[in-house]
Design a protein that fits this description.
By secondary structure, this protein is mainly α. Helix content is about 75%, strand content about 0%. The protein has helices at about 1-40, 60-65, 70-75, 75-110, 115-125, 130-140, 145-155, 170-190, 195-205, 210-220, 220-235, 240-245, 255-265, 270-300; strands spanning about 40, 50. A two-stranded antiparallel ribbon has the order 1-2. A hairpin with a 6-residue loop joins β1 and β2 (about 50). α1 packs across α14 (about 270-300). The radius of gyration is 25 Å and the shape is globular. The model has no long low-confidence stretch (mean pLDDT about 85).
């Protein structure tokens, strides 16, 4: 009997420890390694930085660490402009995703129940193909002699080739296409649970449809709006594949600068400091979301 009780107490103690263990192994340890590299100096070596931690020279290891790379980030205007540009492009893309994703999710939530599973499968269907191949496909669509220009020329809407590829517009199109499921699915999960009798009651009381939508549907969908926006905004800030393939050389984003420092310049310490800066930027909306959710849960009757 005592042995069974001990087993239950052990299981009760281990189960809550699993997520902390997961976060410690797969987030905290990699973060500390990246943070340590950001405090190092670049070197022509393998790995391309110093100092390397050695138990026999712990004092020398810590004395060689400095904040030089973070100071460079504050002094070089390139990284400041890249950070602002990334936040701006990610914010505009998130708004576009919300404008496109909300009607899609609303239509899915109001579809007959037997069709909803098929619609959800269609939304996630693009994930069955490689992300890189799908973005490459947009090059064939958006280039001046591409499919989009041919289609619009064929129906007589334009007479000159469209110059979309290698512009910010191509980046917006690529991000909206790639991240649309991350906006639609949280919205659909929220809108599907919405009580339709509230809208019927509002219509019976004489409320016009647009007011019912604004005062009932939007507030009830707010958890899905916030979750979908964060799921899209956070990875969009650090995106580097889409700007590199569709945006051309003029599109400045911090994820692209990070990739360039890491793989082209082989400056791992500077790249790591950019990654730490990016993480700090991304923690802000997560903290805001956590506070909003906490207040919402406290306000529940």
């Amino acid at each position: 009997m005592k042995e069974r009780s001990f087993t239950k107490r052990l299981a009760a103690g281990l189960v809550p420890a699993v997520p902390y263990l997961w976060l410690g192994v797969f987030f905290l340890v990699p973060f500390l390694i990246v943070f340590k590299i950001s405090l190092s100096d670049p070197a022509v070596a393998q790995p391309p930085y110093k100092p390397i931690f050695e138990w026999s020279d712990i004092a020398g290891f810590f004395s060689a660490l400095d904040l030089e790379n973070f100071e460079m980030l504050t002094q070089d205007d390139l990284y400041f402009r890249a950070t602002l540009s990334s936040v701006r492009i990610a914010a505009i893309s998130t708004v576009l995703l919300l404008l496109v994703g909300f009607p899609v999710a609303y239509g899915m939530a109001r579809a007959p129940e037997r069709h909803r599973l098929i619609l959800v499968a269609l939304v996630i269907l693009p994930f069955w193909t490689s992300f890189l191949i799908r973005i490459y496909a947009w090059i064939a669509i958006l280039k001046p002699e591409g499919l989009l220009t041919q289609a619009l020329t064929g129906i007589g809407l334009i007479s000159e080739p469209l110059e979309i590829l290698n512009t910010e517009w191509a980046v917006y199109i690529g991000i909206v296409y790639a991240y649309l499921p991350f906006m639609v699915l949280p919205l659909y999960a929220t809108l599907e649970k919405m009580d339709d009798t509230l809208l019927e009651a509002a219509l019976d009381l004489g409320s016009p449809p647009w007011r019912s939508f604004w005062t009932i549907t939007v507030p009830l969908a707010m958890p899905g709006i916030i979750a979908g926006s964060l799921l899209c905004f956070i990875p969009a800030v650090g995106e580097f594949v889409i700007p590199d393939l569709l945006g051309g050389s003029e599109t400045l984003m911090i994820g692209r600068q990070l990739w360039s420092e890491f793989f082209s310049n082989r400056d791992w310490p500077l790249a790591s400091s950019v990654a730490i800066l990016l993480l700090i930027i991304l923690v802000v909306p997560i903290v805001i979301y956590r506070d909003v959710e906490a207040r919402r849960m406290e306000a529940r009757p």
